[in-house]
Design brief:
By secondary structure, the chain is α+β, with helices and mostly antiparallel strands. The chain has 3 domains: about 220 residues, Distorted Sandwich (Beta-galactosidase, Chain A, domain 5), CATH 2.70.98; about 300 residues, Glycosyltransferase; about 70 residues, Golgi alpha-mannosidase II (Immunoglobulin-like, Sandwich), CATH 2.60.40. The protein contains 17 helices and 34 strands.
Length: about 750
């Protein structure tokens, strides 16, 4: 038994401990129930309705009025106008919905002996084993991207023993039919509630080898078969006009192959992604224990390095299972949502959550799985232009703190701490720039340059003078937080929250440098340079912290889950231990202040903090916060719990583990910058660095002894010599530059160190 499996000795009684499978578009939660298995299903385009035009026409006539009130610190008056004149009309965008529940029932039996259920992260196969009478059954579930189907295979160690009933239901009453169309197939179809709702269909074929297969009521029954395979395809009219026929065709095509053929094809495809990277720590855990018992031991204070690497692998698994070419990007729950009315609509929340979903994509070698996010930005652009023009009288395109399947860009909710925030598209567009930094794909950058430019164009019009010669956003918020003025007034709407200025600085920099790389648009770049100089930079406040607002206000919640002012530390590179030590010290004070007041109480917030400590080169705090995440915000199946389940923390923490092992901001590669003291000996392979580099590393006593840097684009490499190490050999000509070495990287370069 290896350390690549999540497994349990008992079935899941609760959705939050079921095991996820997915192919980027179809998702399933497998409970591993022996006699009556339920697989809760999703398809990424099953949403509640069509596009809503929600831009508020009252915003533009009131924009300058609100700005004037904010300058005069008449916060309550400004917020009253914002809540009425700037909210979406209607208030909400569309929300994500489940597809249904697939049920497979051993209808002849009522008792059994349970053996285990597992999810193999190396093969993406979910398996359940149990004994009925003296017969051992194995049920395997895959969700194949090549075949575009979910497939379930039930086998027994005795011929003629598989008698099951297959049916599909769920979605409350929001479906139109789920009846067999013949002796082997079921068509399940319906709509998503509203008149213009998305129409969906799932098509199921039950294949029995030996025995009989026949329809019985709303189910397909198998009787005395040697083995049974159930194949499910799902489509919607979001992608296919004849969605019923498209779902049927997926199943018909897959059914031409045996389950073993589907499995082989699925595993090869999956491993082409999963095998790109790996980490291994000197393990001190008993991997023969089921995952829930290992997690319980960690919650009791035991060190389990293997559980950390398993969590890292699970994050990569979820990325491969949940974000593929041609799919929608990962929302708040990826493609695993059970609720007709999920928390926060299970939308794309772009004031951190959607972005966090993709933090580990580039560093772990999964940059091509980042593409669905870029595709969705293009879906947002036309809507964002209309929102920019109608609500603010600006060019370019804008998005507030949420979007949906249609790329909605209007404000979401009427919630003063979060709604009036115009930097969502800007933050998303920095991901385009990050993809370029890692891949050095000039064709990609040329293709996306206009998107970056258009996001920046909005702020050329929207930024306003704060009375001190600085350009700031107004009205805006520091996401979801509330401040207290010197006169004890409380408010959220403000001028120039720090995060806005930091995001816009990064966006402007991306457009300027992209123009230089592509040798285009120099005049536009010069205008952005002049404006960038007038943006507020990170400032240190009265508590020695990075200020969250343009004014050094107190927070109404000092332990707030968002640490927006530290965007400059991570994911940006405006604050660093090496280049801005005073700001780094203030960033440390900011995190300590948050934590001392109960911060990090949501899973995604704790994940962000792990990345912050990694950027501050504090391996001890990385260890503490990974332990806190596992103890307080992780379900037994390793899902991140907000609570409720939110997938962002899984990706954020996986990114944080990678960030502790390898960093590459500010044009430098750093090995083991924040390695946990628990990870005394270990190795990693295939982690990626900006500049088009892949890096392998081996270490002892928390110090690197050997690394191999592979250049994908032939760029010069600048490597920081780790503290306490001396360079022993470099497989290329190099120069020493202070505490760094530089060399022209070509192919694979091996470097060894003496500790």
């Amino acid at each position: 038994m290896d350390n690549k499996r999540i497994w349990f000795k008992s079935p899941a009684e609760d959705w939050n401990v079921a095991l996820p499978v997915g192919n980027g578009r179809i998702g399933g939660m497998c409970f591993g129930q022996p006699l009556c298995e339920k697989i809760q299903l999703n398809e990424d385009s099953v949403w509640s309705g069509g596009y809503r035009k929600r831009n508020n026409p009252s915003a533009l006539p009131n924009l300058e009025r609100v700005r004037k009130l904010l300058r005069e610190e008449k916060i309550a008056e400004a917020e009253k106008i914002v809540s009425e004149a700037f909210c979406g009309t209607p208030v909400n965008g569309r929300h994500y919905m489940p597809l249904g529940d697939l049920t497979i029932h051993h209808y002849k039996e009522d008792t059994c002996e349970y053996l285990y259920r597992s999810l193999d992260l190396e093969t993406a196969v979910c398996e359940t084993q149990y004994i009925i009478g003296d017969i051992r059954y194995t049920r395997r579930v895959i969700c194949s991207e090549p075949a575009q189907v979910l497939a379930v295979d039930i086998s027994a160690d005795k011929a003629g023993s598989v008698s099951v009933a297959v049916s599909i239901d769920g979605r409350d009453d929001y479906f139109d039919g789920n009846s067999p169309v013949n002796d082997t197939d079921i068509l399940y179809y319906g709509g998503c509630g509203s008149e213009d709702g998305i129409r969906f269909a799932a098509y199921i074929r039950v294949i029995g080898r030996g025995g009989k297969v026949y329809r019985y009521g709303s189910r397909i029954l198998t009787e005395d078969c040697d083995s049974v395979t159930v194949i499910l395809g799902a489509q919607t009219d979001f992608r296919a006009a004849d969605y019923k026929k498209a779902a049927e065709l997926d199943v018909m095509t897959a059914a031409e192959k045996s389950f073993d053929e589907l499995l082989k094809e699925h595993t090869e495809d999956y491993r082409s992604y999963f095998d790109r990277a790996q980490i291994a720590f000197e393990d001190n855990a008993d991997i023969t224990l089921p995952t829930d018992e290992r997690l319980a031991a960690v919650k009791a204070g035991k060190v389990d390095n293997g559980l950390v690497s398993l969590y890292f692998d699970f994050g990569r698994y979820l990325m491969i299972a949940g974000s593929r070419e041609g799919t929608l990007p990962l929302n708040l729950q990826g493609i695993w949502n059970k609720d007709m009315w999920p928390a926060w609509g299970s939308r794309f929340t772009v004031n951190i959550n959607t972005e966090m979903n993709y933090w580990c994509a580039e560093t772990t070698g999964l940059g091509d799985l980042h593409i669905p996010l870029f595709d969705h930005i293009e879906r947002m652009r036309p809507n964002g232009r209309v929102t920019a023009r109608e609500m603010y009288g600006c060019g370019g395109f804008v998005c507030h703190h949420n979007t949906d399947i249609w790329g909605d860009t209007a404000p979401q909710d009427i919630w003063i701490p979060g709604t009036q925030w115009t930097t969502g598209a800007a933050w998303l567009c920095t991901h385009i720039w990050e993809h370029w930094l890692f891949t050095r794909d000039k064709d990609f950058l040329a293709q996306k340059y206009d998107t970056l430019k258009e996001a920046a164009r909005f702020f050329m019009d929207f930024l306003t003078d704060d009375g001190r010669g600085r350009l700031v956003t107004s009205p805006s918020v520091s996401p979801e937080n509330t401040y207290i003025t010197a006169s004890s007034a409380k408010g959220s709407v403000c001028m120039g929250p720090s995060m806005d200025s930091q995001i816009i600085y990064q966006l402007f920099t991306a457009v300027i440098e992209a123009g230089e790389v592509l040798d285009t648009d120099r005049e536009f770049g010069e205008k952005l340079k002049a404006m960038r100089e007038k943006l507020p930079r990170p400032e240190i406040g009265k508590y020695g912290q990075i200020m969250e607002w343009a004014v050094d206000y107190d927070e109404a919640e000092p332990g707030h889950r968002h640490i927006s002012q530290l965007y400059a530390l991570y994911p940006a590179d405006m604050i660093s231990v090496r280049h801005t030590p005073e700001l780094a010290k203030a960033a440390r004070a900011t995190i300590e202040r948050r934590l001392s007041h109960g911060g990090g109480h949501t899973g995604w917030s704790r994940a962000w903090i792990i990345n912050h400590w990694a950027r501050l080169h504090d391996g001890g705090r990385v260890r503490e916060n990974i332990a806190a995440l596992l103890a307080n915000s992780t379900s037994d199946n390793l899902f991140d719990m907000h609570p409720p389940f939110q997938i962002d923390g899984n990706f954020g923490a996986a990114a944080g583990i990678a960030e502790a092992l390898l960093q590459s901001q500010n044009g430098e590669i750093q090995l083991l910058p924040a390695v946990s003291p628990d990870w005394k000996n270990g190795s990693f392979k295939g982690l990626c660095a900006r500049g088009g580099f892949k890096v392998d590393c081996e270490w002892r006593d928390c110090k690197p002894v050997r690394c191999v840097i592979e250049s994908q684009k032939g760029e010069k490499c600048r490597l920081v010599i780790p503290s306490g190490c001396k360079v022993q050999s470099v497989g290329a000509e190099y120069t020493v530059c202070g505490d760094c070495i530089e060399f022209a990287a070509s192919g694979r370069t091996e470097i060894t160190f003496v500790i």
